[in-house]
Design goal:
Number of helices: 4
Distance between the termini: 16 Å
Order of helices and strands: EHEHEHEEH
Strand order of the largest sheet: 1-3-2-4-5
Amino acid sequence: MTTVKIDKNNFQADVLQAAEPVVVDFWAEWCGPCKMIAPALDEIASEMGGKVKIAKVNIDENPELAAQFGVRSIPTLMIFKGGEVADMKVGAAPKTALSSWISGNV
């Protein structure tokens, strides 16, 4: 399983109504730390496929979603369970830290 691109049109169905927990990565093309964690998130999506969905929201293309969830700095990662934010992490982290944070929340 790979990361899923999310925008305002599919956020409701693919994140809020998802059966499995969803990690949403709020990012932007110009954000260096966002690009640093992208490969790790892709690997985690493959390794944890079926247990969790990894989704990406480009905040430049979807500013209303960033505003709705109070994203002030990027990367911001949020775990959604049952349509609610279960946990949040701001800033880049190594794959091991991201993986254990996600595992601890799903």
